[in-house]
């Protein structure tokens, strides 16, 4: 049985994962409109992934006798500046998600909820991967600079990351 404090904190994480999914969907649409097919495909798939992160939390809370809640979300932005700015936003967002997961881990230990602590380890590992991937992408973008041909190749390249993830 989940104690209220943990249930509320996990419900808060549901909102964060749902927000991630919405933001990445908005990024996918922005990239698609700009003709960046590869980036759009990558972002659509990131958005789907975030939804699975959210669903995993829903199932866990309900399985442990709590009640998973679906909350209202603010609309994500529609403009993301440049590709570089968009991936910087994504990176910052993932760092924020990691901080939130860390806080959850901290709460679970404080109240000696070892089952939740164990459940959260999957998210800890996932965040390491997601932050690393965002960093790799940003490094590539910095290498390209203003080179249009480089951007074309990058858009093709990123499709590979979508297939792998
Ligand atoms: Fe990329 O955030 Fe979920 O966990």
Architecture overview:
With 165 residues, this protein is mostly helical. The protein has one domain: Ferritin, core subunit, four-helix bundle (Ferritin, Up-down Bundle). It is built from five helices and no strands. The chain has helices at residues 4-33, 37-63, 83-110, 114-144, 148-164. The protein starts with a helix and ends with a helix. The relative contact order is 0.16. The model has no long low-confidence stretch (mean pLDDT 95). Hydroxy diiron-OXO moiety (OFO) binds next to helix 1, helix 2, helix 3 and helix 4. Hydroxy diiron-OXO moiety binds at residues 17, 20, 50, 53, 94, 97, 123, 126-127, 130. One of its GO terms (biological process) is iron ion transport. This is Ferritin.
Secondary structure topology:
Layout: H1 4-33, H2 37-63, H3 83-110, H4 114-144, H5 148-164
Helix pairs in contact: 1-2, 1-3, 2-5, 3-4, 4-5
GO biological process, one term: intracellular iron ion homeostasis
Binding site for Fe cation: 17, 50, 53, 94, 127
Catalytic activity: 4 Fe(2+) + O2 + 6 H2O = 4 iron(III) oxide-hydroxide + 12 H(+)
């Amino acid at each position: 049985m989940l104690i209220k404090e943990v249930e509320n904190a996990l419900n808060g994480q549901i909102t964060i994962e749902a927000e991630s999914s919405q933001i990445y969907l908005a990024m996918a649409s922005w990239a698609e409109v700009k003709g960046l097919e590869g980036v759009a495909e990558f972002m659509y798939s990131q958005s789907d992934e975030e939804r699975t992160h959210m669903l995993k939390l829903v199932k866990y809370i309900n399985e442990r006798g709590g009640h998973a809640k679906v909350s209202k979300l603010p609309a994500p932005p529609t403009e993301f500046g440049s590709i570089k700015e968009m991936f910087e936003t994504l990176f910052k967002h993932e760092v924020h998600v990691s901080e939130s997961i860390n806080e959850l881990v901290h709460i679970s230990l404080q109240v000696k909820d070892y089952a939740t602590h164990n459940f959260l380890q999957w998210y800890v590992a996932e965040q390491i991967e997601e932050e690393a991937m965002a960093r790799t992408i940003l490094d590539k973008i910095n290498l390209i600079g203003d080179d249009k041909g480089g951007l074309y190749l990058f858009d093709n390249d990123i499709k590979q990351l979508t297939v792998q993830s």
